[in-house]
Amino acid sequence: MLPLSQTTGYAVRAMQCLQEPGGHPVLVEEIAEYTGIPHSYLSKLVHKLAKKGLVVARRGHHGGVVLARPAAEITLEDLSEAIDGVAWRKRCLIGLLGCSDANPCVLHEFWHETLNQVLVRLRSVTLADLAQNHDAGVERFRESHGLAEPAAHELEPERELVGHS
Amino acid sequence: MLPLSQTTGYAVRAMQCLQEPGGHPVLVEEIAEYTGIPHSYLSKLVHKLAKKGLVVARRGHHGGVVLARPAAEITLEDLSEAIDGVAWRKRCLIGLLGCSDANPCVLHEFWHETLNQVLVRLRSVTLADLAQNHDAGVERFRESHGLAEPAAHELEPERELVGHS
DNA sequence: ATCAATGATGATCTTCCGGTAATCTAATGC
DNA sequence: GCATTAGATTACCGGAAGATCATCATTGAT
User: Fold this and answer.
1) Cβ separation of A125 and B117 shorter than 8 Å?
2) How confident is the model at residue B163 (pLDDT cuts 50, 70, 90)?
3) Per residue in B17-71, pLDDT tens?
4) What percent of chain B has pLDDT over 70?
5) Which DSSP category does A26 fall into?
């Protein structure tokens, strides 16, 4: 009933690997190896993101994927919306199909406000925010899972996390 | 990734129909007719709630279901926990298996705090709160959907109805 | 003791999501 | 233009959640 799906999580991790618009395209294959997301599944995911205008994918020699706009202009909400859509935001908490703004159930206002708080938070975090902690977080994960080494890694010291509280 | 499942919604609706502890037991059948939740599915749901100590169910003559404690002492969080458990609260937003409090991903703190805000809200609403608006909310819904009066009509097959496809 | 009322339970079906594999199509270099 | 490199697309598999059906087990009235 509030599906920030696993695939949206994948989307976040994939996007963390991408360059700013204009940079060298990153191969889906590279993202797959780096993140551990299955190649073929990632390919579809990327395609979805491309259709939504968040990334640009090119085929053939020197193809790959780049951000369609600056990382600072892509929020978690954008990713959630691109992958999971927005339909779930309108679903009644207790599943009454007749429930709507005009015809609210007992919990309508309560739930609407709850979702809103979550969305505000999702909107407050951008890809650029993530990049700042990218290495620290992902490196730890990679070590504990024996995944492939990235080409270059510059580990920034532990910073205060993105928390907006 | 934040599954307040459809079944939890059912649980809320079902619980709205119950009496205070000590009151006359309500039949699963009655709840099913009143709410539109499939009888057999509801039966399992009720059983789960009983195992969690939220309701008491008795079989046989004059059996039925009653609240195990006052409505004012049962929160939405209780229901969510009884049905969906708590595992999902600990899952990493972006699906990193190595992510934990000791080994946080970039979004760990952010997500933890987000979930917390939701939980605080779920904890702030009790069944008793719902009862106060029960009639207004549910009646409106029933009217606009032609659902059975507590005294059982039959439901039209083609109309969109909660949980029927 | 018996029987009917009523919840409990297990098998099965469907749908959706995550995931795999094979193949198609577009872009580039030669 | 042809081969190679990439992403795009299609078909299919498996598991979990929702839902249904049939059957079992318990309680209380008589």
Assistant:
1) no
2) very low
3) 998 888 899 999 999 999 999 999 999 999 999 999 999 999 999 999 999 999 9
4) 79
5) B
In-domain check, residue A151 = no
According to DSSP, the residues that pair with A75 across neighbouring strands are A126
Residue B156 maps to a domain: no
Whether the pLDDT of residue A143 is over 60: the answer is: no
B117 lies in a domain? no
CB-facing half-sphere around the CA of A36: CA atoms within 13 A: 17
**Residue-number span of the structural domain to which B25 is assigned:** 6-90+124-145
CATH number assigned to the domain comprising residue B37 = 1.10.10.10
Residue A3 confidence (pLDDT): 72
From the list B26, B105, B84, B99, the residue with the least C-alpha distance to B58 is B26
Given a contact cutoff of 8 angstroms between Cβ atoms, the answer to whether B77 and B121 are in contact is no
Verify whether the Cβ–Cβ distance B95 to A6 is below 8 Å: yes
Strand D nucleotides, any atom under 7 Å from protein beta carbons: they are 4-10, 17-22, 25-29
Domain for residue B119, yes or no?
no
| Helix runs in A104-147, H state only | 108-123, 127-145
CB contact under 8 A, B121 and A110: yes
Tally of domains in chain A: 1
**What count of residues does chain A have?**
165
**Alpha carbon separation from B56 to A76, B31, B50, B66 (Å, rounded):** 43, 14, 5, 5
Å from the B47 CA to the C6 C1': 13
Kindly report the pTM of this predicted structure.
0.81
Q: What would the two tokens of residue B74 be?
A: 């049962």
Instruction: Tell me the CA end-to-end span of chain B in Å, nearest whole number.
Output: 24
Query: Which positions on strand C lie below 7 Å from a protein C-beta?
Result: 4-10, 15, 17-22, 25-29
Give the best residue of A94, A111, A164 to mutate against chain B (max B CB count within 10 A).
Answer: A94
